[in-house]
C-alpha cells in the first residue's frame, strides 16, 4: 500500500466527541499517523506480521494503521472508556481486528502482565505531560519495558535531550526518525488560536536482542 493511500483511508477515522483535557486528548492527524506507521513498516520492518501495541490509543488511529499495514495482532490501551468506544466503532467501520483495553497505564494494575513477551512493537502518541506532569515518561518507560523489540513515540522536541539521557539510562537506543509538526486545533475552551503547531520528534527506541 502507498503512503498516500493509507493517509486517505485514515481520514475517515472519527475523533474524540468530547475530548478530556485531563487526559490530554489530542488526536493524531491522518497525515502524521500514516507517516509514522508507514515509516515503521517500510524502513524498519516493525509492523507487518508483528504484534503491535498502542499506548494511549484514543480513537484508535495508530492501531488501525498498524492493522491495515498487516500487523499480526493489534491491541490499544487507554484510560478512557469513551475514547475506547469511539476506537471500537472506528475499528468496526474499517473492518479491522483490534483489541482495546481500558487501563490507567501510569499505575501498576497488573493488566500489562498478560502482554509480557507478546508485543513486538509499541506505537504511541502519549499525553505530553502538560496536565499530568511526568506521565509521558512513565508511559514511555513502560512501553520500552514491555515491547520485545521497538517503541515509536511522539514527544515535544523541547524534551529531546532529557529523553535521550533517559534512553541511555534504560539501555536502549533512541533515534530521531523525523521532526514533525503536530497541529493542535482549537479544541478546548482555553485555546485562543484557531490552531497551533507544536514541534514534535518522532522517536524510535530499540532494545538490543539478548
Ligand atoms: C494525545 S492523545 C493520543 C490519542 C491517539 N493515540 C491518537 O494518536 O490519536 C493521548 C491518549 O492517551 C490517553 N491517556 C492519557 N493518560 C493515560 C493513562 N494514564 N493511561 C492510559 N491512557 C492514557 C488519553 O485518553 C488519550 O486518548
From TrEMBL:
InterPro entries: DNA_methylase_N6_adenine_CS, rRNA_MeTrfase/Polyamine_Synth, SAM-dependent_MTases_sf. Gene3D superfamilies: Vaccinia Virus protein VP39. GO terms for molecular function: nucleic acid binding; rRNA (adenine-N6-)-methyltransferase activity. Pfam families: PrmA (PF06325). Transmembrane segments: none annotated. This is Methyltransferase small domain-containing protein. It comes from Absidia glauca.
Amino acid at each position: 500500500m502507498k503512503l498516500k493511500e493509507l493517509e486517505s483511508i485514515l481520514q475517515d477515522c472519527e475523533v474524540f466527541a468530547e475530548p478530556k483535557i485531563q487526559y490530554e486528548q489530542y488526536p493524531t492527524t491522518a497525515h502524521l499517523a500514516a507517516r509514522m506507521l508507514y515509516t515503521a513498516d517500510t524502513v524498519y520492518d516493525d509492523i507487518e506480521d508483528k504484534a503491535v501495541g498502542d499506548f494511549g490509543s484514543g480513537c484508535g488511529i495508530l492501531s488501525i494503521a498498524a492493522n491495515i499495514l498487516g500487523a499480526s495482532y493489534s491491541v490499544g490501551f487507554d484510560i478512557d472508556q469513551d475514547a475506547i468506544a469511539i476506537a471500537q466503532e472506528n475499528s468496526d467501520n474499517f473492518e479491522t481486528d483490534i483489541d482495546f483495553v481500558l487501563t490507567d497505564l501510569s499505575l501498576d494494575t497488573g493488566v500489562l502482565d498478560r502482554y509480557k513477551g507478546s508485543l513486538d512493537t509499541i506505537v504511541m502518541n502519549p499525553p505530553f505531560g502538560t496536565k499530568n506532569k511526568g506521565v509521558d515518561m512513565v508511559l514511555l518507560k513502560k512501553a520500552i519495558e514491555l515491547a520485545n523489540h521497538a517503541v515509536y513515540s511522539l514527544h515535544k522536541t523541547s524534551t529531546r535531550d532529557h529523553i535521550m539521557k533517559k534512553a541511555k539510562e534504560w539501555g536502549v537506543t533512541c533515534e530521531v526518525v523525523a521532526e514533525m509538526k503536530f497541529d493542535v486545533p482549537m479544541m478546548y475552551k482555553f485555546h485562543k488560536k484557531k490552531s497551533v503547531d507544536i514541534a514534535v520528534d518522532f522517536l524510535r527506541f530499540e532494545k538490543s536482542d539478548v
